[in-house]
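Recall from the previous lesson that a structure prediction takes nothing but the amino acid sequence as input. Here we apply that procedure to Diacylglycerol kinase (ATP) from Luteimicrobium xylanilyticum. The sequence below is the only information supplied.
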Amino acid sequence: MSDVSTPWETWIGVTALVVALAALVVALVVYLQARRAGRRMGRPARRYGTGLGPREQEAPGERLVAFVANPSKPGVPELRDTLVDACLDAALPEPLWFETTVEDPGRGQARDALAAGADVVVAVGGDGTVRAVAETMAGTGRAMGILPRGTGNLLARNLDISTTSVEDALATVISGHDRHVDVGRLRVDEYADEPGPDSEGARDVDHLFLVIAGLGFDAAMVADADPTLKSKVGWMAYFFAGVRHLHGRRSRMRIEIDDAPAVDTRVRSLMVGNCGLLPGGITLIPDAVIDDGRLDVVAIDARAGLVGWAQVFGEVVMQGIGVSSGDLPRAGRIDTSPARRVRIEVEAGAGEHVQVDGDLLGRARRVTAWVEPGTLVVRSA
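The prediction returns the following tokens.
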């Protein structure tokens, strides 16, 4: 079927898209109201140094906290005194403070924090800072905390860490419980061009991701998001960038999951998820659990322009509230399969943009992704 919509298809597509977006707003409102109600009923007194999580905590004692902060994020440099005072108020030693740079977004600073004896290393910034700190923390057995100050704050949302209240997020750092979570790894086996700016300038690098890696539409959307718009409207900047790619071409890919035979398919986007909650309370992968020892491969297609995308958006909304679309004929689809390892090959040509947790790696023709179960310890609510 041609990807070029007729006027009739466009009119139907716009109508369907409006309906899908309206359903999304309703679902989001219901979700947020329920979440706020749960917090009002179940939230304990907010005091640093007292247990906030459901598990029994060790006494703060001499646990040393180190903050790895991205000073380019608004308000982050001004947080230093607040964070130091909060640790001292909780009878903790005076915390360490490291700032990231353009050349080192957090890996080296996290290594320095560990070398200095830090028991908890806290990423203060956006998803890029969290991913960089996690690269160093994975496999160490020591905990990573998160003070989300970015646009998407994807891992924080999936761990129910507050993205709006520094006080609540800091309470989780000081008094939360330690949770072992899985990490994903992605290697670009064949680039279509030179590696991207976030790939450390090397071709043989295993890139950690905590939420979602992807090729196709989602990575192109990340590539085109306007930095100025991101600073003004946050994660909605990705939505505006995505609109420009709704009529983009479908990609032919070969997908090999674990030991199953390879499958050839055409998709708009191919994602590998470690957890499934996106900004706005949107659940893209309902079955994804961050500590289940597996990844979830998600193939998204839209074969009839706006009509297909409207159906995809509608399906995301419905599955997020537990409603199945069943076996109805579909112009757009979301197919999900569990995996421990997946190999993806894009048909010869320009390849596809590839991203890990919003960091672009360049255009790729072949990638491999796999899970490392329980590798990272994260301080959670």
